[in-house]
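User: I'll paste a sequence; please echo it back and then give the predicted structure.

Assistant: Echoing your sequence first, then the prediction.
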Amino acid sequence: MIPFTKAHACGNDFLIVTEEAAYGHNWADLARRLCARNTGVGADGIEFFVWTGHKSGRIRLHNADGSVAEISGNGTRCVAAWMVNEHNLQSGDDLEIITDAGVRICHLNGVHSGGTFTVEVTTGMGVPTFAPRTVKLVSGMGIPGFEVSTGNPHFVIVVDIDEFDPQDTSWHEIGTEICTHKDFPQQTNVEFVRVVNKHEIEIRIFERGVGPTTSSGTGSSASATAALASSGCTSPLTVVAPGGAQTVAWDGPGTELWLTGSASLIARGEAW
């Protein structure tokens, strides 16, 4: 039996499994099996974890399709909530979490243990890079956007309609094609951004290895990067996804981006 904890951040859900518990298993196969919505536990991915200290650990992320991802902002925050619960950490503590995109420091703004165990966390997401780019679809349609790296790859498309559909084409359809486009040999996450006002944006997310998701920490960070760099928005910026809102603070090119949001533990269990 494999012990797991399930957690979510704005509806973006993950299983947390220690490397010790996963020993002897193929992690990609395990992710596909346990993340299946109808025949498994159900999740967007598994964070495989090992402690490196009382307030530090190492994670490796496999998406629901078994593929490896460099980092998930929401997944990292879910792991932080689990670490807090496991070691009875307190508001004000800083956690060090090593990801395949580098070290991320998670500052605990609040710990709420009444009812659902929830933490409020501000995470240093590194220094984003961005550049304008147009992707040509099979139909010949050109989709302008921004190629953004937040430790993992994103293509951010700014739209001006409530339905998030560029050029009268479904964002699901465009997200599917761009995610696996030849311009992105390692595939890419795709975000669609609508500017509400200079302090708030709304987004939709097509996540590499998962598909449409309710939220994404790195996707929120990438979307905010593009909006702050190109659309007259100001920091801190509220990023609203279907699963809830997060806040991004960024002072511009060459500086670290900070992401603030909550994460909650849902359940513990064992799986075959």
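The chain has a mean pLDDT of 97. The chain has two domains: 2-121+261-271, 129-256.
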